[in-house]
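Hey, weird one. I pasted the TonB C-terminal domain-containing protein sequence into the form twice and got a warning about non-standard characters only the second time. First submission, copied straight from the form history:
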Amino acid sequence: MRTSIFLGLALALGAGSAAVPLDASAQSARAARAQAEGSMVLSGSIDIAPDGSVEGFTLKDEHKIEPYIQDFLKQNVARWRFEPVLRDGKAVAAKTPVNLRLVARQVEG
């Protein structure tokens, strides 16, 4: 995904480079890279315990997701807390679908 974003930026920036001096073109490319971001939407489900803590988290098509992204999500989702789900006035376990949008930006340094 990152390759296609940078390829698209390179093509967009390269299209106007003939009319722009080299220094300005290089500065524009640096500025564009600094502002570039990538995103993905992932689907899955969360198992919620009666106390509102997360008991489980699964991602749809997990085999297509990089392991470091899976680890990042699982570590963070495990810390989430929900209002307990009540059924007839009693807190119960629940399962809910989830769609997550991850956005990545390049940091300086």
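That's the output from the first submission. The warning seems to come from a hidden character in my clipboard, not from the data itself. The domain at 38-109 is CATH 3.30.2420.10 (TolA/TonB C-terminal domain).
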